[in-house]
Amino acid sequence: MRKQSLKYFVGLLLVAVTFTVSAQSTKNLVRKGNKLFEQQKYQDAEVKYRKALEKDPNYSKGKFNLGDAVYQEKNYKEASKLFSEVGEKAATREQKANAWYNLGNSLMQQKQYDKSVDAFIQALKHNPNDQDAKYNLVYARKMLKKQQQKKKQQQNKKNQNKKQNKQNKDKNKDKDKNQNKKNQDKNKDNKDQKQKNKNQQKSQPKNQRGDQKKNGQRKQPRQISSKDAKRMLDALKNNEKKTLHKLQKQKAKAVHARTNGINW
Fold it and tell me: CA-CA to 104 of 20 to 30 Å: which in 58, 89, 137, 190?
């Protein structure tokens, strides 16, 4: 029993020694990271902090300092995650207050002003005398108000543009409708005019329509040749001579008769 108890005791002692060496190694890595951080070598500091957390994932100081390093590298999303975890699990009120304060700044850099306001309120709950947290809370609320006003203006502008587009659409629709009506009226007028012309043609006399050629021109009087004209003129002259001779002959008979009729 003593051997077993001694063995067990030795085992516990080895575990305690191992844990102490591991803790010293974790803290040592964090200290090295802090020195690099002070030299503004944030990426190198990040490497040391991550190695420390590989050895002890629950070491809140290492996680908090890692959050500071990635914040300086403008990796605000990762920083927000780390500070949120520290704020929830930190052992002391001071650590919680500092974690919530840094979380508020990380969220504000991402323009998440509503969440930033909540983070600063949490920081002040754990440290009501933090003047920086009070100032940042006022600033975050001011930026949140401006953000909300801007969103409201954008929404109003969007609604106005939507309304204007609808009005333009309705206007174009009415315009097209009026144009279609005009075209229909014009087509109807043309159709009525064609029907009117057709009715006028039907009302014309048949001989008038018969005297027109297909091209719309009237027939011209028939022309006679010069030869036919001369023949007609000669015939007219001969008729006149015959008539004159006949008249002279009748006159001579009349004179003779009257002479014979004189009583000498």
Answer: 58
